[in-house]
From TrEMBL:
Domain of life: Bacteria
Source organism of the structure: Peribacillus loiseleuriae
GO molecular function: acyltransferase activity, transferring groups other than amino-acyl groups
One matching Pfam family: Acetyltransf_1
Protein name (Swiss-Prot/TrEMBL): N-acetyltransferase domain-containing protein
Chain ranges of the N-acetyltransferase domain: 19-118
Database matches in InterPro entries: Acyl_CoA_acyltransferase, GNAT_dom, LAT
């Protein structure tokens, strides 16, 4: 897990000393609530990207997940690893759990996630100034479903 936490240190470290940041991640209740997915090189087993998925089932008839903490080591970014991991994770959850509703909060701008099929929720549905809530579904248009917009996860 330390290797996974390390991937996001430059973005989420908030100027904390490295050891303090890792300790904070290890103690995080938020990180314990989700399920981590990783992409690794098949030959070397090097971790290439990671993300966490949270259960957001606040609808009785729909399975809803939140994707967060998407990270790739700094020296491996811009190689498509995070995109591949997001696509594969969504495909897995669609097939194995019949999940067709995904939310995420983007802290890096919207274009990266729009390229993966996510849409930006309308301004009146946004809850935060610095993070944009986005939605993805192959089956449902955001206007055709009635889901509460999740808090940042």
């Amino acid at each position: 897990m330390v290797e996974i936490y390390k991937m996001g240190y430059d973005v989420w470290g908030d100027n904390l000393p490295y050891e303090e940041y890792i300790t904070m991640c290890q103690a995080s209740n938020k990180y314990k609530k989700g399920k981590w997915y990783v992409l690794e090189a098949t030959d070397t087993k090097q971790l290439l990207s990671s993300l966490i998925v949270y259960e957001l089932n606040f609808s009785e008839d729909k399975i809803v997940k939140g994707i967060g903490s998407i990270a790739t080591p700094l020296f491996l970014r811009k190689n498509g690893y995070a995109s591949l991991l997001i696509k594969e994770t969504i495909n897995k959850l669609e097939q194995e759990e019949n999940c067709n509703n995904f939310f995420l909060y983007s802290d890096i701008g919207i274009e990266f996630y729009k390229g993966l099929g996510f849409i930006v929720l309308p301004n009146d549905s946004q809850k935060y100034k610095d993070s944009v809530c986005m939605y993805y579904s192959k089956e449902n248009d955001i206007d055709s479903i009635s889901l509460d917009i999740p808090d940042y996860f």
